[in-house]
Design goal:
Layout lengths: L1 H37 L4 E10 L2 E9 L2 H21 L12 H6 L6 E2 L2 H16 L9 H16 L9 H8 L7 E4 L4 E4 L12 H15 L5 E5 L2 E5 L8 E6 L9 E7 L4 E6 L4 E4 L2 E4 L15 E6 L2 H12 L3 H9 L5 E5 L5 E3 L1 H6 L2
Antiparallel strand pairs: 1-2, 2-6, 3-5, 4-5, 6-7, 7-10, 8-9, 10-13, 11-12, 13-14, 14-15
Length: 363
């Protein structure tokens, strides 16, 4: 009888212990949720992807769970992947008509493409006229020559050469942007000149970032910082109410200082940089970067870097390239004509010049 009483007593104690644990966990969970609510209700997460637009993509966000952040990140990455494919000038994708498809059919036939590609090409054409030709997405015939010489020079530095002026001038005869015929009703693009080709590198990445973030915002996403190879933009800010802090890479890759400036950006703001340190090769000890001046048909070398602060990532991307191809005075005059657009120029010797609005951002 005594053994039975002891057994019953032990069972009662065990049940009470289990009940205590369950109640404790429930209270702990409620307390944790309350603390999350007080602190903004979200934790910080990061995600990194490689090979979109030939660069690294970083997403920083605040979310109630890692699972939700992963879902939100996937939406953004999927959008960027889609744009990367339709803007691609080098690769084919099954079932996709992209910029390469248009180039392959130059002088042959119009190519039916998605509306998103037509919208980007229209934006590129707008940038051409807005920058007085400093950006020309129809300059592929010239840019491809430089691309080939650069790749050959990187593969065999001792044999690195420059293209001849005659070769470049011949290719430049096939860069008339009006020979890009867009039929929005039929959703087609046709290059009238068979030797013409499009290269959308000056605007495509920035335009894609803006479109991806606009889509994310339409889906209710918030508190996101997106960095696609130095093309940085955000939705909202940190959940504590502070702004996102961003930094601009130092174009001097041998410097002990990794960044040239750091500052905060708020909802919808972006910063984009163009420079001579990303893609280049050397001939006889001189660096030749990938940004080609439409006037000289040679790489621009007045600046090491130009950075633009703006409210639109596509505009910032285009303007950073345009200013890289202008003199400092022309660039200052150009930027002065736009509200909410600021610039910073980094000279080859490392010195910096700012518009006043850009300087005001720096911490």
């Amino acid at each position: 009888m005594k053994k039975k009483l002891i057994s019953c007593f032990l069972i009662i104690i065990f049940i009470a212990f289990i009940a205590f644990i369950l109640i404790k966990n429930h209270i702990s969970g409620d307390l944790q949720r309350q603390l999350q609510s007080i602190s903004g209700g979200a934790d910080k997460y990061t995600s990194t992807s490689i090979d979109l637009f030939d660069t690294k993509t970083d997403i920083v966000g605040y979310s109630d769970s890692e699972e939700q952040f992963a879902k939100d990140s996937k939406v953004i990455i999927d959008k960027l992947t889609y744009y990367n494919r339709i803007y691609d000038i080098y690769n084919d994708y099954e079932g996709v008509n992209n910029v390469k498809t248009i180039n392959d059919n130059a002088g042959v036939t119009p190519v039916k493409v998605d509306k998103e590609l037509i919208d980007m090409l229209k934006f590129g054409k707008q940038m051409y006229y807005e920058t007085d030709g400093r950006i020309n997405i129809a300059m592929g015939s010239v840019l491809s020559i430089w691309h080939n010489y650069r790749e050959a020079g990187l593969d065999n530095p001792k044999e690195a050469k420059l293209p001849s002026k005659e070769e470049l001038e011949d290719a430049a005869e096939h860069t008339n942007i009006e020979d890009m015929v867009i039929d929005e009703k039929a959703s087609t693009v046709f290059l009238k000149d068979e030797r013409m080709s499009l290269d959308v590198g000056a605007v495509a990445k920035g335009y894609a970032v803006q479109q991806a973030l606009d889509y994310a915002r339409s889906k209710g996403m918030d508190n996101i910082l997106l960095n696609v190879g130095g093309n940085i933009s955000c939705i909202g800010g940190r959940t504590d109410g502070s702004k996102f802090m961003v930094a601009i890479q130092n174009p001097d890759l041998e410097s002990d200082e990794p960044y040239v400036e750091a500052f905060e950006i708020e909802d919808g703001e972006c910063v984009v940089s163009s420079g001579d340190y990303q893609r280049y090769y050397e001939v006889d000890g001189k660096k030749y970067c990938h940004i080609i001046n439409p006037d000289t048909l040679f790489p621009s070398d007045e600046f090491a870097q130009v950075s633009i602060l703006a409210k639109d990532s596509g505009v910032a991307d285009g303007f950073s390239t345009a200013l890289f191809n202008m003199s400092l005075e022309d660039g200052k005059e150009f930027i002065a004509g736009y509200k909410n657009v600021e610039a910073m120029w980094v000279m080859p010797d490392g010195s910096k010049v700012y518009t006043q609005g850009f300087k005001d951002y720096i911490k």
